[in-house]
């Protein structure tokens, strides 16, 4: 067998950008969002939404009102009702303020009135404190079994830490979205908040906080969280993977193709806190994860094939293989990074899985 070659590449430091299936795409593509599809997706679904609006000194009263308009656009896309979706709202500057809580206004007209009466606060930008308030008070009234989503809007950089409170929210099963407005926003902090680049939206101005963005955001929430069985790609700074939900308890294994017997490359029921919420992430340096450079656009593609095997011992016709691919954009600085190059061999796939049985 020929030895696996190793290469030293001079590559730029990259900032992790987003999942790119085959080509670069804008974070918002209005042509792919159909209002009727969104309506169908959320009409009979419910979600607990906590919206965090930037009220720092750089915003100003007129711009803050644009955020309030966006809040109403978003509310109009959700099924706001006693049994449907609920919304809470926090405005944050130096000190965050919970304007109204989940379940406080469950009629669309009442909710619109509550949003319109909010007054601009102004002050420094402490997004981390707002995230902590979301965890401490924003989730009060959240119903058991209903997905929880926090949406953060910001136009700059937080003056306090956002990483720890964001992780605490995600640990509490809150899906965090971040909307960065203007080119002054700290994109790294947006990724720290969401933990997933798929949930980062960027727009050039507050005028773009419009119905189209509300549609895109609602559709993203709906297709990834409300519909069981829809795989979600995970693009981390040093790991890659996928997660999904199932209608019935999952009793099989999720593993990297051709690496069933590598414990680091496989996850079974014993590793899933919820037997209906399954997935796997693996480090770039293991499980034959492929990395290769791209010159146009400049950056690095990272990819791996992950198998969902629904039976604990046998392959079935319901098994699925998901090709996970993430793209990491180049930045300006350079660093020497050793990359391992390997060729995946998916032949004799069934044999490689069950060789030891």
TrEMBL record:
Q: Does the keyword Nuclease apply?
A: no
PANTHER family (UniProt xref): COLLAGEN ALPHA, PH DOMAIN-CONTAINING PROTEIN
Which species expresses this protein natively?
Answer: Caenorhabditis briggsae
Taking the record's annotation, the residue ranges forming a coiled coil are none
Its transmembrane ranges are none
SMART domains according to UniProt: VWA
Keyword annotations for this protein, in alphabetical order, are:
Signal
Q: Which domain of life is it from?
A: Eukaryota
InterPro entries to which the protein is assigned, alphabetical: CUT_N (IPR056953), ECM_Assembly_Org (IPR050525), VWF_A (IPR002035), vWFA_dom_sf (IPR036465), ZP_dom (IPR001507)
Taxonomic lineage from the root: Eukaryota, Metazoa, Ecdysozoa, Nematoda, Chromadorea
Question: Which Gene3D superfamilies does UniProt cross-reference here?
Answer: von Willebrand factor, type A domain (3.40.50.410)
| Residues of the VWFA domain | 48-217
Gene name, please?
Answer: cut-6
Instruction: Extract the signal peptide range.
Output: 1-25
Q: What SUPFAM superfamilies does the record point to?
A: vWA-like (SSF53300)
What name does UniProt use for this protein?
A: Protein CBR-CUT-6
Q: Tell me the Pfam families matching this sequence.
A: CUT_N, VWA
Signal recorded as keyword: yes
Looking at the record, the residues that make up the ZP domain are: 234-357
């Amino acid at each position: 067998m020929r030895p696996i070659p190793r290469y030293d590449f001079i590559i730029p430091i990259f900032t992790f950008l987003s999942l790119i299936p085959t080509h670069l795409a804008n974070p918002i593509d209005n042509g792919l969002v159909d209002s009727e599809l969104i309506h169908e997706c959320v009409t009979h679904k419910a979600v607990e939404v906590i919206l965090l609006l930037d009220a720092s000194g750089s915003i100003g009263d007129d711009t803050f009102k644009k955020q309030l308009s966006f809040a109403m656009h978003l509310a109009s896309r959700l099924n706001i009702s006693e049994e449907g979706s609920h919304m809470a709202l926090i405005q944050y500057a130096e000190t965050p303020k919970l304007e109204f809580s989940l379940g406080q206004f469950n009629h669309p007209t009442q909710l619109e009135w509550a949003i319109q009466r909010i007054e601009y606060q102004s002050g420094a930008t402490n997004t981390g404190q707002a995230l902590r308030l979301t965890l401490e008070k924003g989730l009060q009234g959240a119903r058991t079994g209903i997905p929880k989503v926090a949406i953060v809007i910001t136009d700059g950089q937080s003056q306090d830490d956002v990483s720890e409170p964001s992780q605490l929210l995600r640990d509490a099963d809150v899906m965090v979205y971040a909307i960065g407005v203007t080119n002054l926003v700290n994109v790294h902090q947006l990724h720290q908040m969401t933990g997933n680049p798929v949930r980062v939206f960027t727009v050039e101005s507050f005028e773009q906080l419009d119905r189209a963005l509300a549609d895109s955001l609602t559709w993203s929430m709906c297709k990834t969280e409300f519909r069981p069985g829809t795989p979600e790609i995970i693009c981390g700074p040093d790991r890659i993977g996928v997660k999904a939900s199932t209608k019935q308890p999952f009793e099989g294994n999720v593993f990297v193709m051709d690496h069933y017997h590598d414990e680091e490359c496989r996850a079974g029921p014993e590793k899933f806190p919820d037997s209906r919420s399954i997935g796997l992430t693996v480090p770039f340096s293991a499980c034959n994860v492929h990395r290769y450079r791209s010159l146009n656009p400049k950056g690095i593609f990272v990819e791996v094939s992950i198998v969902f095997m629904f039976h604990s011992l046998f392959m079935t016709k319901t098994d699925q293989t998901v090709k996970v691919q993430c793209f990491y954009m180049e930045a300006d600085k350079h660093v020497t990074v050793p990359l391992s190059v390997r060729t995946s061999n998916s032949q004799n796939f069934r044999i490689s899985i069950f060789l030891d049985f």
